[in-house]
Design a protein that fits this description.
It is a single chain. This protein is α/β, with parallel strands linked by helices. It is built from 4 helices and 6 strands. A 5-stranded mixed β-barrel has the order 2-3-4-6-5. A hairpin with a 5-residue loop joins β5 and β6.
Length: about 170
């Protein structure tokens, strides 16, 4: 009898977990959810500059539009929020035929990444990072090419972070 009650409780907890969210999200063609529409640009923003150029020319607080590939490390995404790193398209990533299991970490050209990388944080209307994984929110993956539009933030070491209000994902 104890086993019956244990199984019944287990069954109820599984049902509760499966039905716990009443928030409705719908998947789009690319796999992003319906709540991503406000962050995904419908068309590619004009005048995007490569990450390396933006690192050299952008100033703190300046509106920027830049293009890059998601990568720069073995784990370019930040778990739990819509944030990731992108690398300038001119920097070659490791080819699959070189035997690299994670070409997006740029292990073959790591010396070029330092001056050609930026951190992207997708932010809501109040400027807070969106609390959803970027892979799910934007239907992106490692080496996806993105064009981001937002505000540049510079630190004392010259690192570039963009608080992005819009992201355009080029064909995955």
């Amino acid at each position: 009898m104890k086993m019956f009650y244990s199984l019944a409780l287990l069954g109820l907890s599984v049902v509760a977990v499966g039905c716990g969210s009443s928030q409705s999200t719908t998947a789009t063609e690319g796999g992003a959810t319906g709540d991503s529409a406000q962050y995904l640009a419908a068309s590619e923003p004009a005048d995007a500059v490569p990450v390396g150029d933006a690192r050299q020319s952008s100033e703190d607080g300046q509106e920027v539009t830049l293009v890059g590939l998601i990568g720069g490390s073995t784990e370019p995404f930040v778990d739990g929020i819509a944030a990731f790193t992108i690398v300038d398209p001119k920097v070659p990533y490791c080819a699959a035929d070189e035997g690299c299991p994670t070409p997006w970490d740029y292990c073959c050209t790591q010396d070029q990444v330092k001056e050609n990388i930026a951190t992207i944080k997708v932010v809501d209307g109040s400027g807070s990072p969106v609390a959803k994984d970027a892979r799910e929110l934007l239907a992106v993956k490692e080496l996806s090419t993105v064009v981001v539009k937002g505000t540049a933030q510079r630190d004392d070491q010259g690192n570039l972070t963009v608080s992005a209000s819009q992201v355009f994902v080029k064909g995955n």
